[in-house]
Automatic annotation (TrEMBL):
It comes from Nocardioides baculatus. Keywords: Signal, Transport. InterPro entries: Bact_solute-bd_prot1. PANTHER family: ARABINOSE-BINDING PROTEIN-RELATED (PTHR43649), OSMOPROTECTIVE COMPOUNDS-BINDING PROTEIN GGTB (PTHR43649:SF29). This is Carbohydrate ABC transporter substrate-binding protein. Residues 1-24 form the signal peptide. Residues 27-47 are annotated as: Disordered. Belongs to the bacterial solute-binding protein 1 family.
Length: 459
């Protein structure tokens, strides 16, 4: 993942010129494998193994996986591979690293790429694909993604018209956290539109409660929380097409549509009547750790906190995160019904650096509804979800995970990946974070957006 429970992204990963590695030398021209299948699969005849039978008996084979997903989440991932081993006979060698984003590029350059990598940013995927070392996804994987994921998800695993990487896990960022008990005690209702949300904020302020609390401090990544706010607002105000143009710099970063969206965000985050519940004035947002940003809700010092589904892990141990519990979340309302139901989020993508049968089999398994449900069952404590429409919500134990899956599976949902993770690192992990922090502490909308526009690389 993108180390989602601690920060939005890591420091910029330079695009490196990777020499010919020969790692994909066994790949055929169409992305298929040149290796021959041998023997019957150990799981032949079992329904859950049906799609994997085509790869034959892989007993004694090993697939190496490299990822940023560390304990305690690592155990659930490894447990979710048991069906794969039972069906094929192959084993999975799992390696997690907190230096994944930088070390993956180093390993690729050194000719030591893993068989599989879980890549958390489309920009990083493009970087490693540009090295020539990533193998196109085999047809069964493409078929699974067509069946179980939307076109938007497939597009993020596609580079220059070629499909490389299937989606894996996902997170919803378009959530607002609140206290169901506080709402019930005050007769407040979950807002259905942005205007309803502002009216609710006014009611909270009139009742003596600061409506909003926020924190954007995150070490070297300070400011990322505010970028999420802007991305959500652009999606809601201007729609997905304009959002895509903005992310790809087909329109200027300081386009009027973007400025309007940031001013809308400012109507909340820079409104001293609304923030910063439990912490101080508007400027305190910049020095409040994002992990702490929503905690005043538990003390009744704040009513609302916009943050992703993964914020569930930040509530103190023992907090009841449910529809009638201590805290829960609702969908951040839209501002324009013509734009459908925009959903901002993040996730990982499965890229392969070899096309041996066992590697293709593992890719196929991870892109299937079988794996999505096995992973859900292997995560009884919650904290994981996928945009895979074959995921049975009954296998998710956490109410917030179920809400996330329902949001992804909503036919009206229009998903877009986190914008800063798609932008050049000098912007997405640099000027965008910096200028949003300056904006919170007093810089104008025009100056903040103008400075980011000027920072966009010339090529």
């Amino acid at each position: 993942m993108k180390n989602q429970r601690t920060r939005k992204g890591l420091a910029a990963v330079a695009v490196v010129a990777v020499s010919s590695l020969g790692l994909a030398a066994c790949a055929s021209d169409d992305g298929g494998s040149s290796n021959e299948v041998s023997g019957d699969a150990p799981g032949k005849g079992k329904p859950e193994c049906a799609q994997l039978e085509q790869f034959g008996d892989l007993t004694g084979k090993t697939v190496s996986v490299y990822t940023s997903i560390l304990p305690p989440e690592q155990e659930a991932h490894e447990n979710s591979y048991k069906v794969f081993t039972e069906c094929t006979g192959a084993e999975v060698d799992y390696e997690g690293s907190d230096q994944f984003e930088t070390q993956l590029v180093v390993r690729v350059k050194a000719g030591n790429a893993p068989d599989i990598a879980y890549i958390p940013q489309p920009g990083l995927l493009k970087t490693v694909v540009s090295s020539g070392s990533v193998v196109e996804a085999p047809q069964p994987v493409s078929d699974n993604v067509d069946e179980f994921f939307g076109e938007d998800w497939k597009s993020y695993g596609t580079v220059d018209g070629k499909f490389y990487a299937a989606p894996l896990g996902a997170s919803v960022k378009s959530f607002v956290w609140y206290s169901p008990k506080m709402f019930a005690d005050n007769g407040w209702e979950v807002p259905q539109t942005w205007d309803d949300m502002l009216a609710l904020s006014d009611d909270m302020a009139a009742a003596g409660t600061k409506p909003w609390c926020a924190g954007i401090e995150s070490g070297e990544a300070t400011g990322w929380v505010a970028t999420d706010w802007l991305e959500d607002a652009v999606l809601r105000d201007a729609g997905a097409d304009v959002y895509d143009q903005w992310v790809n710099h087909e329109i200027a970063f300081d386009d009027p549509a973007v400025a309007e969206a940031l001013d809308r965000v400012g109507g909340i985050l820079k409104n001293d009547k609304y923030v910063n519940g439990g912490f101080g004035d508007v400027k305190s947002i910049a020095t409040t750790a994002f992990q702490d940003g929503g905690l005043p809700i538990l003390k009744g010092e704040c009513g609302l906190h916009r943050q992703a589904s993964f914020y569930a892990a930040q509530w103190p141990e023992g907090t009841d995160v449910s529809e009638d519990g201590d805290v829960f979340a609702f969908y951040l309302p839209t501002t324009n019904e013509d734009n459908g139901k925009p959903v901002l989020g993040g996730g990982e993508f499965v890229a392969a650096f070899d096309d041996r049968p066992e590697v293709q089999a593992f890719q196929t398994y991870l892109s299937s509804d079988i794996w999505a449900n096995e992973k859900a069952k292997a995560t009884p404590g919650g904290g994981w979800v996928s945009a895979n429409t074959g995921l049975d919500l009954n296998n998710l134990t956490s109410p917030i995970d179920k809400l996330s899956a329902e949001t992804f599976q909503d036919p009206e949902a229009v998903f877009r990946f986190d914008g800063s993770d798609q932008m050049p690192s000098a912007v997405g992990a640099g000027s965008f974070w910096k200028e949003m922090t300056a904006w919170i502490t007093g810089e104008s909308t025009s100056d903040a957006l103008g400075n980011i526009e000027e920072s966009w690389p010339a090529s």
